[in-house]
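re: ur question from earlier - yeah i can do the single chain one, its not a big deal. heres the input i used so u can compare w yours
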Amino acid sequence: MSDVDNIASGIVSIVRGAISLAGTAVLLGCMIYNPITQSVLAGMKFDLEFRQDEVKAIQKANFRLLCDQYKDASFIARWTKTAYLDLHWCDDYLDQM
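and the output i got, formated as tokens:
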């Protein structure tokens, strides 16, 4: 192969790479901006935020009942007893008790 053939082969490889990169970017953009994909992601986000808001409302309504023992427990008991592991959210409400 001559030098001209090597240069032409290199240019063809660069053009093919650029075309494939552009095609990949277009397909990825179509996938991201697809209305179905966006609606699914928005629904997942709404569901997560809705659940967090509901959990906070339930915690706020019931912290006096649930956090009483947590308040009296020692630091080591809070981190080692399984009964207190799910009550770590009580730390936010200890000053209100």
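Helices lie at 3-32, 35-66, 68-72, 75-80, 82-85. not sure if urs matches, ping me
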